[in-house]
């Protein structure tokens, strides 16, 4: 364990991926709780819901009908946050220096996709075997490859990846009209994380600009590589595997950790063990082992409090349009941010001090990792049947 005194005293921890700090207050776990409690989530959904906009063969909100798909299904979001075509905008030069300094805006274009994981309405990733999650990863890979810049350093790897994975017949995916900068793949699971439809799915937003979070990480990773001649996440993954204090699970290709700098109570990070810059660089074995890692995380989450555990997850990888330096500095990893703190009914809130000062957590990452390590075994729902 790290210095045992850190289990009992307030202290700050540094996040090298973003260059930020957070406050850790482990003694606060002893305080009584009389605040809001979330209702335990129940998994009583049918395999098919005729009113679901994402089930096979059903009509969506805007009138289009889904095909009767049997695997994954991808389509352009009917309510996209960004669009490929919109009215032109240029910041007006007013001659007012203060206005030009403080009132900045830039247009953003792009494409947003929805990707269903399965035709079965009642499943989650925790319910699916790695073999069933693998087609999701293959579809992510295809969509990333189809949006990659023709001059990208990973173009050859993308061609090889496309040749090694099966086609996806139920995917309304076409190359963008204009080259886009970044692709953010993410999943919001559960109503507590703002998910509006329980059918197992994720979203894929591609934008003409670089978003803040992956942008900050890329800057930090490039800086670390320039200063030390090594990769930040390579050093970090090696360190965690050696110490075993925050490791939840690992296989040959990936390590799952509760990171030293975690903000959310049971936050985890899936890190590639070798230098993989993006999905298109995975071998067939690595794609399957990534599916194993995702299944391990989501199943352990559900087992922790015996509930349909909510979270937001997202993949960070090389930008769609990047030079050699940016691509080389990138290191594939996946974040999971779950809100539950003490039980299926008590969640963590980022309010007050977290909003006004800096993030704060109570349970330490070491304690969280130990609890998640103890949640292996069959999915609790299976044992109830």
UniProtKB/TrEMBL annotation:
Q: Which residues form the Galactose-1-phosphate uridyl transferase C-terminal domain?
A: 220-374
List, for all copies, the residue spans of the domain called Galactose-1-phosphate uridyl transferase N-terminal: 8-211
Q: Which stretch is the leader sequence?
A: none
Cofactors demanded by this protein: Fe cation; Zn(2+)
Fetch the Gene3D superfamilies from UniProt. Answer: HIT-like
What is catalyzed by this enzyme? alpha-D-galactose 1-phosphate + UDP-alpha-D-glucose = alpha-D-glucose 1-phosphate + UDP-alpha-D-galactose
E.C. code? 2.7.7.12
Write down any Gene Ontology CC term.
cytoplasm
According to its UniProt record, which residues of this chain constitute the active site?
201
For this protein, the record's Pfam families field holds: GalP_UDP_tr_C, GalP_UDP_transf
Cofactor-binding details, from the entry: Binds 1 Fe cation per subunit. Binds 1 zinc ion per subunit.
Per the record, the GO terms for biological process are:
galactose catabolic process via UDP-galactose, Leloir pathway
Pathway membership, UniProt = Carbohydrate metabolism; galactose metabolism
Q: Which InterPro entries does the entry mention?
A: GalP_UDPtransf1, GalP_UDPtransf1_His-AS, GalP_Utransf_C, GalP_Utransf_N, HIT-like_sf
Binding, Fe cation? 217, 316, 333, 335
Please tell me where Zn(2+) binds in this chain: 52, 55, 121, 199
State whether it acts alone or in a complex, and with which partners, per the record: Homodimer.
Q: Which PANTHER family match?
A: GALACTOSE-1-PHOSPHATE URIDYLYLTRANSFERASE
Q: What is the protein's given name? A: Galactose-1-phosphate uridylyltransferase
Give the organism, scientific name.
Answer: Chaetomium thermophilum (strain DSM 1495 / CBS 144.50 / IMI 039719)
């Amino acid at each position: 364990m790290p210095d045992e005194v850190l289990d009992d005293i307030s202290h700050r921890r540094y996040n090298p991926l973003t260059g930020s700090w957070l406050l850790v207050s482990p003694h606060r776990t002893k305080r009584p709780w009389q605040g809001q409690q979330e209702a335990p989530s129940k998994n009583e959904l049918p395999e098919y819901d005729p009113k679901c906009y994402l089930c096979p063969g059903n009509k969506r909100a805007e009138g289009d009908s889904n095909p009767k798909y049997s695997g994954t299904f991808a389509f352009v979001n009917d309510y996209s946050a960004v669009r490929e075509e919109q009215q032109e905008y240029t910041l007006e030069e007013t001659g007012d220096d203060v206005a030009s300094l403080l009132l900045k805006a830039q247009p953003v274009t792009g494409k947003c996709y929805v990707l269903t994981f399965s035709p079965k309405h009642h499943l989650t990733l925790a319910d699916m075997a790695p073999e069933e999650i693998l087609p999701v990863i293959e579809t992510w890979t295809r969509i990333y490859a189809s949006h990659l810049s023709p001059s990208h350093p990973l173009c050859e790897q993308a061609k090889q990846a496309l040749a090694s994975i099966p086609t996806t017949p139920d995917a309304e995916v076409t190359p963008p009209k204009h080259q886009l900068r970044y692709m953010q793949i993410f999943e919001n699971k559960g109503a507590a994380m703002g998910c509006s439809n329980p059918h197992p799915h994720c979203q894929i937003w591609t934008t003409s600009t670089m978003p803040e979070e992956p942008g900050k990480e890329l800057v930090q990773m490039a800086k670390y590589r320039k200063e030390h001649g090594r990769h930040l996440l390579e050093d970090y993954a090696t360190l965690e595997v050696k110490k075993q204090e925050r490791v939840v699970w690992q296989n040959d290709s990936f390590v799952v950790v509760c990171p030293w700098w975690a903000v959310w109570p049971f936050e985890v990070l899936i890190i590639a063990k070798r230098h993989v810059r993006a999905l298109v660089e995975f071998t067939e074995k690595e794609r399957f082992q990534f599916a194993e890692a995702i299944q391990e995380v989501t199943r352990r989450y559900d087992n922790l409090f015996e509930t349909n555990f909510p979270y937001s997850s997202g993949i960070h990888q090389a930008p769609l349009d990047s030079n050699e330096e940016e691509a080389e500095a990138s290191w594939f990893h996946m974040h999971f941010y779950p809100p539950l703190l003490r039980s299926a009914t008590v969640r963590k809130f980022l309010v007050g001090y977290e909003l006004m000062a800096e993030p704060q957590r109570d349970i330490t990452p070491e304690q969280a990792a130990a609890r998640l390590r103890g949640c292996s075994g069959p999915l609790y729902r299976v044992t109830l049947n």
